Structure formats: structure tokens, C-alpha cells
Amino acid sequence: MCHIPMFCWISATALQSLLVNEDQAELPKTLTEMYMHFLIKQTELKNQKDYHGGDTDRDMIMKLGKLAFEQLQKGNIIFGEEDLKECNIDLKQAAVYSGICTQIIRKESGLHKKEVYSFIHLSVQEFLAALYVHKTFVDQRKNLLSPRAVIPVSEGGESPIIFLHKSAVDMALNSDHGQWDLFLRFLVGLSQDKNQGLLQKIFGKKDKLPQSREETIDYIHRKIQKTSYTNKGINLFHCLNELGDQSLVEQVQKYYKSGDISKILPVHWSALAFVLLVSNEDLSVFDLRKYYGSEAVLERLLPVLKVAKIALLSESNLTDRCCRYVSSVLTMKSGELEELDLSGNNLNDSGVQLLAGSLQDANCKLSKLRLKQCGMTTSGCRPLARGITSNPSHLRELDLSKNKLHDNGMMLLCDVLVNCRLETLRLSGCGLEEKGCTHLASALCSNPSYLQNLDLSRNSFSTTSVNQLSNFLQHPDSTLQRLDAIVRQLLFSSKLFWFLRSEQTSTFVPRLFKTNLQAGGAAVLVSALKPDHLKELDLGANTIGDAGAQKLSELLKSPNSKLEALR
């Protein structure tokens, strides 16, 4: 909220008098305290105007609270003149009642030049609504959140406010879009002694609130244990903060700072999410493995994932269920996720399909997607290709290695290569054979200008299909810089031999790790490579023998050699 100009104005208005007042012991520590001081300041402005006619401060605030609550129930933030009249708010009186009205309600011209009204900010509407509901319960023993509920009366004649708080907590948790979250924070905060003292300045007396704080705290703790991943769980921690309870957060914070997060109970991982969100830590990288990666942990740490730019969720025992959580982050209007790694999880085609739906969303900004060894098959290729090509402007890196795509899957993925601007594509160990290589080569030749890194290791290509791939390598618009782990036959392609000898390979990096390369292949390779172009060469895990090593030494001894790294 600190990024909202109107909230900054509200804070400045509330703090201005407090900072210059020598009698003020301390500044507000909660949001409710801040808004209470803001409201008191508005009543002081009215008194400075020396306006004493009409309603008292209490009456006007209750009328505004009634308006705020009823419009909040309807989902309205804009209302008309008739809505003000229904709450007995006199427009002429409002014009001179500086502070409580003119500083809290603003008038604008709506459609057809009709005058419409709104509170200066939604948070002010929520605060006044909570104040109205609170005072109605205390003074009239009416639960406006659950009108039919029977409210017991204590021996002193008061109604325990826990019944109102329970209704508010349940209502906030059951709402779809968090529209009652801030209302709930204000409502529980008003029962605090500090805020009761501030209310007394306006209403003239303190409320009698038997058994409120501890019972409300206990009820919220129980709800936190049952509430899962959504921001609703985070809001409950804000409510505890309004009530002055930091016990759970402090305990989790202690374990987190000591590095012993194994002691955090599964139901309290949402407390860690709250700790991280209110800390000064850089949350741009979310690495689930740091938190004993599992689906249950991801569910409760989802609010942290929502503020990340890079999500490392690989090898975390996740299933297709997690894709619903991740999809909700990818489609957020305010989301910033750019890199997602789900490799090594058992997502299967059903999970990939869920992800593919979110890739189509206009809000998705993903530039790197890694799905290596996630149980995907040919069936997952169609929805994935559809998702990527529906929103092709962002994705630059795609890793589908060690999935059983086969040739038919490669054919379905061709649209991605033709229509998108992929710079890195990894298809290692995907079961591709001649037809798959043919589809791949054709697609790459249709859009040769972007791809810079291509990994085709651990696939079985014939000489014919390799020659087709070489057409892409020789394309004048090709910008390929790294071709990872080509099968041995590729070395003997006459077209590739020409490519390796050309000026086009000045930045090319052959990586031939574990490609069954032997002495004869090493000799062919050395004869093809130009030593004055090559800077890096990877021949690891091959059996080139002494003869092959001898050939390599000739490359290294060349006076024109620029080789910097040899593996």
C-alpha cells in the first residue's frame, strides 16, 4: 500500500500532528491505529471550522459507516445521490462539514454528467464499514455479518465480541477475491485497547469487550492451520499483528534464521511466507529446494512465489496438482515470473496441459521454461505448442529433454519453432529419429534467425536426416552458436564438414559430450575445425583413445589456435 499515493496522503495526514505533538508517546504500529488517527484528524478539521450545526461527530461517522458497509456488501465503490440520502447524509451539510465528509467522500461526474460519489480510497470505505459493524454490535448487540445468529449475553449485559469476529473471519475466508480481507483487519484491530482509547475521543466512552482478544487470537490460529496457499492465509497473520500477537511468527522466524527450518510444522509454513514477505530479503528468486520442497510446502509458500521473477521448482516431488498453483501465478496481472524450472517432477501430460493453458494468457511473461524429465509424452505436445504459439512474444528458452516425445511429438512442436523466437531449445533424449529430425530441420529452416543453442543429444538420427539438419546450419540467416552433443554420424556429413570450415563458425561451440566418438571421428572433426575460430570444445565421455588424442594435439599446436577450453 505504500506505493499508493492516496494511502501515502492518509498516512501523512495522520502522522503530521503526531510528529509535532510532544505529548504523543509513540507512533501507530498497526494499520487500524493509523486510520483511527486519520479519522480523529478529520473531526478536528471540522471543529476548526467552528461548525456546530447538524449531526455530532459520532452520528456523522455512523452514517458514513452505514453507507460504506452497505455499498461494500453490494460490491460498489461508486454510488449515487440516492444512496447518500438512504443513509440520511445531507449533501448541503456535507459541503460544509469539512473533514469528515469533504475529506472522506469525493464527488465526480459519471456517465451522462450524472454526479456520483466515492470514498477517497477503498481502504477508507473498508475502515468506516468495520467501525460501523463494530459499534453496532457493541451498542445494539446486532451482528450485521450474521443477522440470524443468536448472540449470547454475559453476566454484565455485554455480548462477547468473539462471535462477531468469528463471523468476519469466516466471511473473509469464504470470499472469492479477498474483498473482505482489509475489512477484517480493521474489525479485529478496533478491539485493541490502544484503539479503544482512540475511539473514546470520538464516541466519548470505551466499549465493553469481555473475552475478546485471546479468544479471537486462538480462533485465527486454528484457521491458519486449516487455510492453505492463498493470500487469505497471509491476511490472517496481518490480523494477528493488529491484535498484537506475534508468537507464531516469532517462533518460525527463530527457526528460519537459525537455518533449522525442519522444525517448522507443515501447517505453519504459511507463517514463513508471511515472515519472508515482510522481510527485507530479495525474493526475486524462489528456490523451493531450500524449504524441503514438496507440494504441501509450495501450496503454503505460494504468496512468496507470486512476487518472484525466477521459480526453481525442480526435483521437488511435485505432481500435476502443483501446476494449478503455478498457473495462478503465471496468469496474475501483477505477476513478474520470467523463468520457471519444473524439471524432474512427475507432472505428466495432465500437468503440462494445465501449464499450457496459462501460457496463453496475456499476463504471462515467461521467457524460460524448463520441463526436463517431467513425464511428458506425445499427448502433451499439442496443448503445449498451442499455449506457446498463442502468446509467442516472450518465450526464449524451452527445455523438454528426457521426455518421450518421439517423432510425432516433434511434428506437433514444429509450430513453436516456426512462430516463436526461441533462442535455446533442448531436446536431449526425446526419442527422436529420422522423421523427427526431418520435421525439426524443416521448421528451423522456416525461422532460422533466432535459435542460438540447440541440444539434440541422445537421439538416433540417420545420415539422411542429419543432412537435412545441415541445411539449417548452412542457412545464411542462421545464428546458431552451440550445437550440443550431435550423434557420431553427424560428424561424417559432408554438409556439416563444409559448415565447420566456413567463416560462419567463428562463434560456434561444438559440444560432443558422450556421443560415442572414437579415434576415426576425432580425426574427421580435427580436419573440419578451423583453429583460428574455435574457442571451446567439449569431447568428454568419449573413447577417442591415444590416436584421437594425438589428432587433438595437432589442433592445439597450431600457431593460429585460439582454443581456451577443452574438455
Q: What does it look like?
A:
The protein is of the alpha/beta class and 567 residues long. Among the domains are: 5-208, no CATH class; 444-567, Ribonuclease Inhibitor (Leucine-rich repeat, LRR (right-handed beta-alpha superhelix), Alpha-Beta Horseshoe). 49% of the residues lie in helices and 7% in strands. It has 24 helices and 13 strands. A nine-stranded parallel β-sheet has the order 3-4-5-6-7-8-9-10-11, with no helix packed on it. It has a two-stranded antiparallel ribbon with strand order 1-2. Strand 7 (397-399), helix 19 and strand 8 (424-426) form a beta-alpha-beta unit. Helix 3 (57-74) packs across helix 6 (122-140). The relative contact order is 0.04. Keywords: ATP-binding, Cytoplasm, Leucine-rich repeat, Nucleotide-binding, Repeat, Signal. This is NACHT LRR and PYD domain-containing protein. Residues 59-119 form the NOD1/2 winged helix domain.
